[in-house]
Automatic annotation (TrEMBL):
<protein>
    <recommendedName>
        <fullName>GH16 domain-containing protein</fullName>
    </recommendedName>
</protein>
<dbReference type="InterPro" id="IPR008979">
    <property type="entry name" value="Galactose-bd-like_sf"/>
</dbReference>
<dbReference type="Pfam" id="PF00722">
    <property type="entry name" value="Glyco_hydro_16"/>
</dbReference>
<dbReference type="InterPro" id="IPR050546">
    <property type="entry name" value="Glycosyl_Hydrlase_16"/>
</dbReference>
<dbReference type="GO" id="GO:0005975">
    <property type="term" value="P:carbohydrate metabolic process"/>
</dbReference>
<comment type="similarity">
    <text>Belongs to the glycosyl hydrolase 16 family.</text>
</comment>
<dbReference type="InterPro" id="IPR013320">
    <property type="entry name" value="ConA-like_dom_sf"/>
</dbReference>
<dbReference type="GO" id="GO:0004553">
    <property type="term" value="F:hydrolase activity, hydrolyzing O-glycosyl compounds"/>
</dbReference>
<dbReference type="InterPro" id="IPR000757">
    <property type="entry name" value="Beta-glucanase-like"/>
</dbReference>
<feature type="domain" description="GH16">
    <location>
        <begin position="57"/>
        <end position="305"/>
    </location>
</feature>
Length: 555
């Protein structure tokens, strides 16, 4: 940008069903597939929790808040601006003045293109009302942290929305703060978000002297609502995110110098509203003014991962199936997670002794992990470690989904434990030791809050193996007749007059998911049904909320 250029049918509903495709696909696939047929123990694995009661909360925001609350322990929040004052915090930001690059053509420090109100920073693009004082036809606002807050590595998140107009070009980007590698693009640029005109997508781009491919990606978005645009910058790769979900990753090549990877020293952050230029095109003045609204900016410092503690798990087997069986497998990251602490294995860890080149069948120049022609990789960690989950990252330049990826661990490389199967898009965590629960709380809201609630089935699921709880399970203790206030002759579960049922399983149990079935003789939809889980019946975890018609799977 320094010159002129530079996501299976959805079955679940969560505010907007179409906004959670990965989660829905995984749940559906887990229901229809499993080789584990243990009828005595039902395994439990919660994939995602969501719960929110904020007004007008978009799905994008809910995803963002979830990912933020479970963000990698590699990042610690140390710097932020929520724009809650009445003026720009000049200890953090400077206004950007006019310059020669396209993005600076109409920049000004004048107050008329800057506003801080109601917790938002407004950067505007306007028709210049006084061309006698300043002959430029347009004026725009931008701020940066140069000289006030520079940083190497870390995570940046900016929640913002923007107007669209012909010639409108708002952006969020990082620029190298020093020039020991030379001028632009040699000192490097990380474009987190650029939006042009009326596009329904944004660009994320890397600039350097010599770039690996791919170095740019687009992702669909509604720019007129608040979205959280982000980047995670590591010593050997850069991950772009939209509302907490990874969209594109750029890798440091093996043996790379500054030409391909100038991203090893300080950069600064820029928020800019620009108009016109050779990339964005001409300006339609009748569509002005435009307003670029920033809710907050957060910077999380990068903290290198420690090694996990010693334990018995030494071998990891990864089998990529589905549409990723052959040589175009791109496994880009294997991370061990112990109690939330992440340890990223170096690319090709122990792969030379197993697969030859050690960096991937189709990824010798990009540091990808090696998988054989059948999509198999076995990793010998060299010694045993203690970890409770494994995160896999995959190449996702074309938004592909890696189906039925299998992960298992072993202490001797011969006998492997339970097989965990997930679909992976960008990245996915495989939980090895999922938690156990004894209590299930069900709250039926909306059109089913009162005595005509008809809950007909509660089923525990382990990856396709189901256990249907007997009607009124433990309900007699809680509700008297045990089969429902309005269902004595039909075997329905008991819900009280407020639509509440708490089930005590009698012991702690492991299970994949909970399926609720409802009476649907008149095709009714039970709105806002909430499910949460507890070990002790006192402290419940996050609430998952869906609308239910016929049946619905939670977690």
């Amino acid at each position: 940008m320094e010159n002129s250029y530079s996501i299976v049918t959805n079955l679940l509903t969560f505010k907007d069903i179409n906004s959670a495709p990965n989660f829905n696909q995984k749940l559906f696939i887990n229901l229809k597939r499993s080789e584990m047929k243990n009828k005595w123990i039902i395994l439990f694995s919660i994939i995602l929790f969501f719960g929110c009661d904020k007004e007008e909360e978009t799905v994008e925001q809910l995803f963002t808040e979830h990912f933020q609350s479970t963000s990698s322990s590699n990042f610690q929040l140390i710097w932020q601006d929520d724009f809650n004052g009445s003026t720009l915090d000049t200890t953090k930001w400077s206004r950007i003045s006019e310059g020669t690059p396209d993005w600076k053509n109409y920049m000004t420090t004048d107050d008329q293109v800057y506003e801080i109100s109601n917790g938002h920073l407004h950067l505007k693009g306007i028709v210049n009302p006084d061309t006698q004082t300043d002959p430029r036809p347009y004026l725009t606002g931008g701020v940066w942290t140069r000289g006030k807050f520079n940083f190497t590595y870390g995570k940046v998140e900016v929640r913002a929305k923007m107007d669209s107009a012909q010639g409108c070009w708002p952006a969020i980007w990082l620029l190298g703060s020093t020039n020991e590698y030379g001028g632009w693009p040699d000192y490097g640029e990380i474009d987190i978000m650029e939006h042009l005109n009326f596009d329904n997508y944004i660009y994320s781009t890397i600039h350097s002297n010599t770039k690996s491919s791919p170095s740019s990606s687009t992702v669909s978005v509604n720019p007129g609502v608040f979205n959280t645009y982000g980047v995670e910058w590591y010593p050997d790769h850069i991950v772009f995110t939209l509302n907490g979900a990874a969209t594109f990753t750029y890798y440091k090549e093996s043996g790379a110098d500054w030409r391909q990877w100038p991203f090893d020293r300080d950069f600064h952050l820029i928020l800019s509203q620009q108009l016109g230029g050779s990339w964005v095109g001409s300006i339609n003045s009748s569509q002005l003014p435009v307003d670029y609204v920033i809710d907050y900016v957060k910077y999380y410092e990068y903290v290198p991962s420690p090694a996990p503690p010693s334990g018995s798990q030494q071998y990891i087997k990864i089998q990529m199936n589905g549409n990723t069986t052959n040589t175009w497998n791109h496994l880009t990251e294997v991370t061990l997670i112990n109690e939330g602490i992440e340890y990223v294995l170096p690319a090709g860890h122990n792969a030379p002794s197993l697969l030859g080149d050690g960096v991937g069948v189709n990824g010798a120049s990009t540091g990808f992990f090696g998988l054989d022609a059948n999509g198999l990789l076995e990793i010998d960690l060299g010694q045993g470690y203690d970890f409770d989950a494994i995160k896999l990252g995959v190449y996702n330049g074309d938004n592909r989904i890696y189906e039925d990826v299998e992960v298992s661990v072993s202490s001797d490389g011969i006998t492997y434990g339970n097989l965990i199967v997930e679909d992976v898009q960008s990245s996915e965590t495989f939980a090895l030791n999922p938690p156990v629960y004894q209590y299930i709380k069900i709250q039926m809201n909306g059109s089913t809050a009162n005595t005509w609630s008809h809950l007909t089935e509660v089923t525990l699921i382990n990856g396709g193996t189901t256990f249907v709880l007997p009607s009124g399970h433990d309900a007699s203790v809680l509700l008297g007749d045990g089969i429902g206030e309005n269902g004595a002759s039909t075997g329905y579960y008991g819900l009280d007059s407020s639509g509440l049922l708490v089930i005590n399983l009698g012991q702690e149990v492991l299970f994949d998911a909970v399926k609720l079935g409802v009476f649907n003789g008149d095709s009714r939809t039970y709105q806002g049904v909430e499910v949460s889980l507890s070990k002790d019946g006192v402290n419940y975890g996050p609430v998952e909320t869906y609308d239910v018609q016929n049946y619905q799977v939670f977690f």
